[in-house]
Amino acid sequence: MSALPKEIFRFLQDLEKNNHRDWMQDNKKQYLANEKELKKLYATVESGLNETDQIEKVKVFRINRDIRFSKNKTPYNIHRSVSFSRAGAHRRGGYYLRIEPGNKSVVAGGFFGPEPADLKRIRQEFQMDASEIRELLAQKDFAKVYGETFDAWNPVKTAPKGFSKDDPNIDLIRLKNFVVTHSFTDQEVLAANFSEKIIAHYRLLRPFFDYMSDVLTTDLNGVSLLD
Q: H or E segment at 56?
C-alpha cells in the first residue's frame, strides 16, 4: 500500500484549531478525501489480519463527538479510529487503531470494559494462576512492542469484592481492562510500510488472545462453556 497522504494530519491539526461545524462544512471535500485514503488502509489491515485470524466486523468510529455528557462541547474528534472484531464466540479480543497527529497514533488490543461475568472469570483465573499471562506479557517480541504490563485505566483501589488485597496477583486482579498499546510517530504513520507494521504488531497479540479466549470459554475446571 502507498503511504497515507500528509493532508490527513494537516486536516486534523487544522480541525483542532477550528473545531466547529462551519469550518467542517467548508472543508468537507478534504475530509471525504481523507476518509477514502484511510478506508484503504483499514481494508489492507483487515486483509492482513484475515491471513491468520478471522475478522467479523470493521467499525470506523464517527468523527462526531458525543457531547451530551461532556464538558467539552467541541463537536468533532481530532483523531480517526477503527476497530476490528474477531469472528465467533470462541475468538475473544479485539484490535484497535487510532490515527492522531503529534506522535499520538496507536495500535491497541485486548479486552476493554469486559462485561461483569467475563471480568470475574478473568480475575478468578489470575487468582488461581497468573504465571501463564505473565509469561505471555514478558515474551521478548511482545514486550518489545507492548511492554510487559497492561495499560492500567482506573483500577480498583484495593481489591474487588471477593478477592484479597494481599493476593500475590492483586496487581492483575485489580484491573478493569486488559489492553496493551503501542505508539507510532507521525513519521512512521506516513511511511509506506505503516500497514505492514500494524499487521505485524497485531499478530503479536494472538498468543495473548488465544489464552484469554480459552479462559473466557471455559469454567475454572477447564470445561468448555460453548458446548
A: strand 55-60
